[in-house]
Sequence to fold (375 residues):
Amino acid sequence: MKKKYIIPIYLLLAACSSNETLPTTDVDPEQSTDVAFSASISGGGSTGRADDEPYKHNQFILDRSRIRVVNTVNYSTPDFTDATEGESSEYKEYKYTKKVENENEINFTPYQENGFNWNDIRPTAASFIFEAACYPSEYKYFSEVAADQSTLENFWKADLLLAHHAQPLSQRYDLVQLKFHHVFAMVRVEIDLPISDPYEAGGFPEDAITKVELVDMQVGYHVDYTSAIGNNECRTVTASGANKANISMYHLNPDEEPVFEGNVRKQHYEFCGIVPVQSIMNKDLVRFTIRTYTGEVSNDEQPVIDEDKTYIFHPGAADSGMETTTINLTQEWITVLNLSVTHTPQQTILLNAKIQPWDNAYTEMDMSPVTDTGE
Fold:
């Protein structure tokens, strides 16, 4: 009796993917075999439309944005680190070259004429797997988030966008459409200060807030490449490592003028920072450096200002306005803290908190931090 063996087709494909180059008989001799890419940012699109909130970096920057792409085989972890001199890198780099009307057009081309060729790359199982990374601003690999985010360039530099795409074997030679996701969390602090009489001790002058920091944040991160995810979904990225830093936040609205609310003049401030996803547990979260009047006058009869009075927001502190002690930052979301600072008594309190979409794919919702019970 003859024995029959049934070998699953995906095993045959996987074996072929790691050892052999696929035949090219299905391509027209005049057709290019270069791998072509279009890329968009989740919620932003690839068309380069005007963005009224550029701090979110939801659009690529024409003639400047670059991405790194790796064709991973058999579920390997991609290496996006900068290539050392004289050695080749695992990734190929592509640059953003034009605005397009839809995602079916090429908008990224090889940087320095060095791209992928379909005849040189290998599939895993039934698909060609592409992992891609975008490091905004400097477009260089980093393993830790930048601590100085006080300028727009440095703020963008702290961002990281990743894409995962599986191109079926049947779509070999077709356009590869990458969808990038912001993989960190953003913290946005909003605060209104009353503008005081110049001779009121502890009162606030105009442009009182000079610096805002996220305190003692984890800056290293880990990307989970071992878990299976759906096509074009977001990789899970969390804070890792022992290194911590104070994050100098970016001032979103430095030119905002004071306005009257009834008989009180107030000035609105907004600051943002980007960090890997982590939990803020029973610790100082935000530190403000605020200019205040001393109530004294100088020799030339001008009000004296104390330039570096410090205010702290500590979730769960008795005067913070929160009963909870833990805030869980969320990947791809912006945690918004609406705070109030008073000078008599000196305290920072939470008016409300919410998470809002980093992109346009979600609906804003109230945030209810979870109390750490120790269970």
